[in-house]
Amino acid sequence: MTQFNQSRVPVPTLGRLATYLRVLSDLERTHVQTISSAEMERQTGINAAQFRKDLSYFGEFGKPGVGYTVVELQDRITRILKIDRRQPVILVGAGNLGSALVGYPGFQENQMELVAVFDNNPAKVGTVIHNLTIQDFRSVKELNQQLHARIAIIAVPAVGVQRVADDLVHSGIKAILNFAPATLRVPEDVAVRNVSFMQELAVLSYHTSGKLMAPDVLPPSNK
Amino acid sequence: MTQFNQSRVPVPTLGRLATYLRVLSDLERTHVQTISSAEMERQTGINAAQFRKDLSYFGEFGKPGVGYTVVELQDRITRILKIDRRQPVILVGAGNLGSALVGYPGFQENQMELVAVFDNNPAKVGTVIHNLTIQDFRSVKELNQQLHARIAIIAVPAVGVQRVADDLVHSGIKAILNFAPATLRVPEDVAVRNVSFMQELAVLSYHTSGKLMAPDVLPPSNK
DNA sequence: TGCTGTGAATTAGTTCACAGCG
DNA sequence: CGCTGTGAACTAATTCACAGCA
Q: How far apart are CA B173 and CA B89, in angstroms?
């Protein structure tokens, strides 16, 4: 029964789709043709039923008695995540972290193309990192009229980050990956995901030398 | 396979505690004495009842009609998260990302002390970044007998990351923050949290130009 | 009165269990 | 058969709603 469960997809499902994609790439590289949900569980630690259910939100993909065709599933997931074609991404903040991100491999692998880097520090503007010239953040709106990026990464200090977010929203950005330790206020139609190292470390710290068990042993914390 | 800790503190609660701590620091700096759950909601986007419930797992902290004493709450949360004293942390991988992390401010703020950096690249061993000399990863077990770190950050490529994790576990590490896009297999008593930029970007990509709403608008994704 | 603390209700997410197809 | 796809059962997490206290 191919009914597109267009009813809301759980957010954690989307994160897991990216994990499946990673495994599928490995399988493709080693010329494996098909994979069953049980084998996917072995590779990722994610429950086999969970894998099947995650896919079921988007239609039917597998062949009973056989499993899933690697390349076909890969193709479907990339289309679901809209990374079947290049996604332009802009980065704000060319500090330690921002600069490290520019050189991060894996953008390419996931069809994410970093198309511009911005900073507000005049000393940095004009400098080149990894083939990209750092632009003045004040020109973000104007430049994004050409670039058409819908995704932005924020890697600036917490102070002033709200202003940065506001300007990005006015530049047409619809999704923000925020590394600054601050809560952003954005319109309803803009998605935000926060990455906080310190928060992650704090959670881990809680578990050290406690009598408490690890919350998730094998499975990745796919939020 | 995902078995949860026998205590009934939800994992997301721990992440939010770190967020509250951030707000409390700001308040302390500006000499604010008390804060109500409603005001905390305004500052973080986290529901006021959620805030109260999060704290209730650990006892009673507030004064009815008044709110919470900033410094007292700060003190209690740091003790809960075991960051009331310095937590030694070791880092594996001195590449782009690893190096950026070494210079990250906020370790100090959260009483996390980066005490050693390791790499397996002989060209890097001996080099200094931010006052820390890069050590040969093969000496991690030996060195950690002095350092007594229980928390490690992994910032190496996906290939070989399982070996790194195994060695860390044998060196007494009980909590791992993993930046490599791979699923780690570790003993039950070792906690792992995965940070995957590409996964986060994939989730955001899904939300671009779709008719679907952002999953969490104001509240930080404290998963 | 203005707030906290918390059972109860609700919503979200995961896993089970099995019908049914190739 | 061996596998998928999915309603049903379950478990986790959030939010409501209100009693009770300073």
A: 9
